[in-house]
Amino acid sequence: MLNKVAGKILIKETELNLKMMLAGGQSFRWTELVPNSWSGVICNLLWILKQSPDSLEYEAIGLDGSDDVERTIRKYLRLDEDIKSLYAHWSKRDSHFEKVSSKFPGIRLLCQDPVENLFSFICSSNNNITRISSMVEKLCSLYGNEICIYEGKTYYGFPQVKSLTQPGVEELRKAGFGYRAKYIYESAKQLDALGGERFLEDLKAKSYTESKLELLKFTGIGPKVADCICLMSLGHLGTIPVDTHVFQIAREHYMPSLKLTKNVNDKIYKMVGDLFKEIYGESAGWAHLVLFCSDLRENRVKEGTKRKKEMPQNKNKNRKKAK
Asked: What GO cellular-component annotations does this UniProt entry give (predicted)?
């Protein structure tokens, strides 16, 4: 019988946008079971989260008896942060944020495990959310420990650093990881030599600049991935990872001088990051995440609309050919 604990936290859905947080490119371990119900792994436990308009219900499965369950989920979702005050502060500083935030309330920055965060974002190189999620799941099933079987599916914890240093990890290339397989293996060896998880935990006490410089020494970690790790798992909340979405947001709404610029070089990367830091201050990374999620959502809607428009046209073409 599975050892589990259930609980309920009173919080309005306007203060917790679970869908955008769990499926918006922060973490890659969550699956929507049915609308407003999610399964995922945090701290080597399987979590089932169910959201209603006024509360969040949770089940933590796979306990060893020493887990402070509610504290774990509150920390992960940053539920003790006053998100209304943060949104109000950012809205005063930026009219575009004010407009966007009314459509996307309750987006919180997840507080993630540094080891999982580091290797997940190594997988993110030139990739999309669906493929990254599949790769991270594969990594866990191959090298992580089994937590439990729930409703026919086996759930695994994220691998220990030491387990990723095995030479066989390079075989991930055959499992669809491509060049990222070598990055995972080499970075795992580097991290293990530095002390593993403890090394990353110690970076939380260092400055953003020091932390980023240390991360850039790892194989497969460039400026954007380093910034994602700094923001999402090391507590450097002013960090701005600049990807295509963030660059497009900056170009369209804040930096018209970049209208004709198509690529992000080091200079532009810094310009965009500095701009958002100037606007939003010490929690700029969280604020920019709201803009990122809104842009991601709008792009998905546009793609869905485009596909719907194309489908009847293709059917008509097929009918004409049949005649």
From this structure: nucleus
Half-sphere exposure of residue 145: CA atoms within 13 angstroms, side-chain side: 9
Strand partners, 39: 31, 48
Whole-angstrom Cα distance, residue 176 to residue 33?
25
The structure's pTM equals 0.90
Q: State the Cα–Cα distance between residues 209 and 211, nearest whole angstrom.
A: 5
Give Cβ neighbours of residue 268 (< 8 Å, ≥ 6 apart): 242, 247, 258, 261
Amino acid sitting at position 293: C
Tell how far CA 4 is from the center of its chain.
26
Query: Residues with catalytic annotation?
Result: 224
Per-residue DSSP letters for 236-304?
-TT-----HHHHHHHHHHT-GGGTT--S--HHHHHHHHHHHHHHHGGGHHHHHHHHHHHHHHHHHHHHH
The residue type at 245? H
238-261 tens-digit pLDDT? 999 999 899 999 999 999 999 889
Cβ neighbours around 186 below 10 Å, total:
17
Please, what sign has the CA dihedral across residues 16, 20, 26, 31?
Answer: positive
Per-residue pLDDT tens over the stretch 57-80: 999 999 776 568 999 999 999 999
